[in-house]
Structure formats: structure tokens, C-alpha cells
Design a protein that fits this description.
Length: 441
């Protein structure tokens, strides 16, 4: 979803609600049949099984996907699907007969190439060169003009809309430049960044909660993906029982409580979501309440405008992920994508660029949220990651297909390694201690 609006020079289309914007399909398929209903199970048995499974074997839960497998089976149909004995079979069905090749040095080197680097650099330079009044920077100007209409503070302070030349906007402009420059400068590969996530993300959240910033990780975290497999899962209570719950891209939770829970500790979004929020009065972006902190990664440098503006009106922390973390995530996902590409097509690595639209290729919000959880939690549970033929793409929309610029299958391979053999994950510093990860279906 990071490519949205990037090439736009005409005025942007009217803002769709964020959930739809985030889900804008590239290719659409005919309407899907209603998701297959699974028999309701008593909640206590789900909890019991889940607790047992987590306690006995924190690392062995496994995602089952593909091949139209939906529910049923598993460990008595309980919360965690895939005990240690099921891994082999499930892994086979995932691979569709083609074994994933080991990561070799050519793949690793290829995964280091960031095909979006060039346009990012160019766009950053243009934004930094541009000045506030320059009408040549249409998109920049348009964004600022929007802020004129949407920042209640700007209006209230003068009783009328602030102008682009007001001291207030000049200050925002300077902040924007400073933040963008710092971000661009520190955008580099650093395998150690995983060890820095507690300081970068959890400390601000601790302070917001009125606690002394501590290096303690969250005892347990639930990362709630938005897959339709959550429907009828009954996981809500289990999700809320984690110390921290991370939700993605402002997915709706009202009326879904039984399956997705209601607690939110971190709202994780990509900057396209915030970009749409920035058009609203007071930059309203809080489906989980205005006191829930947000973390987001930057899709486009211009989104720092939205960040600066929204940061000023948000009461809870609005944290931009460290660009070194972005680089790490990009390399990891590309390496998994390359492996799957080679296994499924047998084509040379170089053919990946065209097949996956290299300049627009991006990890999903879910992937980065999972890696964030791995960095700030002692135990991680994943919910709502994965697909089945019967499930909707998102539990809260009727969208059936997915965005082409993410390689979900490759990301599922990553999650499986996180749960089973995290040391196999490339690019992460060898001294980083991965927490146990369980994948729920
Ligand atoms: C690594 O694997 C790719 C894909 O299978 C292959 O094309 C390449 O030659 C291999 N490189 C090395 C150094 O083995
Ligand atoms: C964002 O807001 C917080 C809290 O008001 C503030 O401490 C921080 O400096 C702001 N960040 C930027 C880049 O303005």
C-alpha cells in the first residue's frame, strides 16, 4: 500500500475511509461467498488448549494456510493449530511441492538491493530543496493547504484559517525538514537495531503511561493481523489477555470483539493511513481511542508533513519507526520473497524485479508489527495472519483479493521461521534474542 499516491501529480482523489484506502485492491475478483462457518466452541476449551499449547511448546505453533484448509483439524480444533507433529505436513502443503531453497550468498546479496532507494532519495531531495511558498511542489503545497483547513488549533489561535506564511506553519515547515533530513540520513542497514526497539518504541509508551521508562519488555504481546480467518475464531478474550495488544492499520473492532478482542496498546499503521487521517478535523485517527499510542512506518517522504501536523494534535505518542528498522525489515522480506520466487518459478533472481514490481515492493504493516513485537515482547502471539480459501482478506471488509505489492506467502514463511527456527532469519544480528512466537488460527 506504500505506492498509493506516489506518482500522483493531479490533486489526490477524495479521501476514502482509511480502511478502504488501505485495502484498495489492485485486481479485483468476483464477490466471495460468505466465509465458511466453523462450529462455535466453548471459550474455556479454547483458552485451556491455548494455555496448554503455549506452556508446553511456545515455539512450535504453526500457521496453516493455502490449499483451502480452513479450521477443523489441528489440535482438536483448539486455539493453536499445529502441534510439533503437524509441522511437516503443514509445511508441505504450503510449499506446493516446491521445496524452498536455502538462502545462499547470491540471494542475500540480491536481497540487500533496495529498488525503491532511487525514487526515495530523489523525492526527499526535492522536498528538502523546495520552499514553503513554491507552487512547483504541488503535492507539498496541497498538503499544507489541507492542514490550513483541518488543524483546529491553527484556526482557533487566530479565529480564522492560518495562512501558509503564518509563523505557525513556518515552524511546522522547519520541523518537517529537520525530521525528514534526520530520517533520510539514518536510513541504513544496521543488524543491531532490533536491540534498540525497546528504547525507541517502548520507552515513549512507558512515559505516556506515567511509568518510568524501563528496559523490561512486555511480558506478552498479541499482534492482531486483519485476516478474515479471525471471524468465528472466538479469540477475543485470549487476545485481550496479553499484556500488550498491537493492532494494524486502524482495523475496526466494534462488533468483532468476540473474535478480535477490544484492548489496544499500540495502533500500528503505515503512513498512508495517517495521510488520510490528516484530512480530518484534528487529524482524527483513533478508532481505539485518542489515548492509544500509534507507531507507523513512513511510506513516502512527503508523509512527514502529515506526521508533523498530526503529532502536534495527538495526545498520545505518534512514533515513526526507525529507518534502520525499516531497512532491516525490507531486506528480510525480500530474502523470503526471493526464495519463494526461485522455488516456485525456477527463474533467475534477476527476474524477481519485474515479477514483484521491485520499486514498489514493500513489506506489509503486519510484518513490521510482528518484528516490532519480537523486539519489545518476551512472548509473542500472532492472530489473524494467514489465509484460507473460505476466509475474507480482511475480517472487517468484503475485500477478497490482496494488494499485489506485498508477498504474503513469503511473509508467512518468515512467521513460520520466527515460530520454529528464528535463527534462520537472515540479517538480524546474531546476538539478538528472539522471543518465543506462537501462531494462532
Ligand atoms: C543461489 O541460488 C540461486 C537460485 O537457486 C542460484 O541461481 C544461484 O546460482 C545460487 N548461488 C550460489 C552462490 O550458490
Ligand atoms: C511530537 O510530539 C511530542 C509530544 O508533544 C513531542 O515531544 C515531540 O517532540 C514531537 N515530535 C516532533 C518531531 O515534533
Amino acid at each position: 500500500m506504500c505506492q498509493l499516491n506516489r506518482a500522483a501529480s493531479p490533486p489526490p482523489p477524495p479521501p476514502p475511509p482509511p480502511s478502504i484506502a488501505a485495502a484498495a485492491p489492485r485486481r479485483s475478483k468476483p464477490a466471495s461467498p460468505a466465509p465458511m462457518k466453523r462450529p462455535a466452541r466453548p471459550l474455556f476449551s479454547i483458552l485451556l488448549l491455548a494455555l496448554l499449547a503455549v506452556a508446553l511448546t511456545c515455539r512450535t505453533a504453526l500457521l496453516r494456510r493455502g490449499g483451502g484448509v480452513s479450521g477443523g483439524g489441528g489440535v482438536g480444533g483448539g486455539g493453536v493449530v499445529g502441534g510439533p507433529f503437524e509441522l511437516e505436513g503443514a509445511a508441505q502443503s504450503v510449499m506446493r511441492g516446491a521445496p524452498l531453497p536455502d538462502l545462499n550468498s547470491s540471494m542475500l546479496r540480491y536481497a540487500e538491493i533496495d529498488a525503491s532507494e532511487e525514487w526515495l532519495k530523489k523525492e526527499t531531495e526535492q522536498l528538502l530543496e523546495g520552499d514553503l511558498a513554491s507552487s512547483g511542489r504541488f503535492r507539498t503545497y496541497g498538503t499544507w493547504r489541507r492542514f490550513n483547513h483541518h488543524d483546529p488549533k491553527a484556526r482557533n489561535s487566530r479565529g480564522m484559517p492560518a495562512t501558509l506564511r503564518s509563523p505557525m506553519f513556518y515552524r511546522y515547515w522547519l520541523d518537517f525538514r529537520r525530521n525528514l533530513r534526520d530520517w533520510a540520513r539514518s536510513k541504513r542497514f544496521q543488524p543491531d537495531v532490533m536491540d534498540d526497539l525497546v528504547r525507541l518504541v517502548k520507552h515513549p509508551l512507558d512515559r505516556h503511561a506515567g511509568l518510568p521508562a524501563s528496559d523490561r519488555r512486555y511480558a506478552s504481546c498479541a499482534v492482531v493481523g486483519n485476516s478474515g480467518i479471525l471471524l468465528q475464531s472466538g479469540h477475543g478474550e485470549l487476545i485481550d489477555s496479553h499484556e500488550a495488544v498491537i493492532r494494524l492499520n486502524n482495523a475496526r473492532i466494534e462488533n468483532f470483539g468476540r473474535d478480535v478482542g477490544s484492548k489496544t496498546t499500540i495502533s500500528f499503521v503505515n503512513s498512508n493511513i495517517l495521510h488520510f487521517c490528516a484530512r480530518r478535523e484534528g487529524c482524527f485517527c483513533h478508532p481505539y481511542g485518542p489515548s492509544v499510542p500509534m507507531a507507523m512506518y513512513i511510506c513516502q517522504p512527503a508523509h512527514f508533513l502529515d506526521y508533523i501536523m498530526c503529532n502536534a494534535s495527538h495526545k498520545a505518542p505518534l512514533i515513526v519507526t526507525d529507518p534502520r528498522f525499516d531497512v532491516l525489515c525490507a531486506r528480510i522480506v525480500k530474502s523470503y520473497s526471493l526464495r519463494r520466487f526461485v522455488a516456485e518459478t525456477g527463474r533467475p533472481l534477476e527476474a524477481w524485479d519485474a515479477a514483484h514490481d521491485a520499486a514498489n515492493f514493500h513489506y506489509s504493516s503486519g510484518m513490521q508489527a510482528v518484528m516490532l513485537a519480537a523486539g519489545i515482547c518476551d512472548r509473542v502471539s500472532l492472530f489473524g495472519f494467514g489465509k484460507s480459501a473460505a476466509a475474507k482478506h480482511h475480517y472487517y471488509t468484503n475485500q477478497k483479493s490482496e494488494l499485489g505489492l506485498h508477498h504474503y506467502e513469503a511473509e508467512y514463511d518468515l512467521y513460520r521461521d520466527l515460530a520454529q527456527q528464528p535463527r534462520a532469519i537472515p540479517f538480524v544480528s546474531a546476538k539478538f534474542r528472539f522471543p518465543p512466537v506462537a501462531i494462532y488460527r
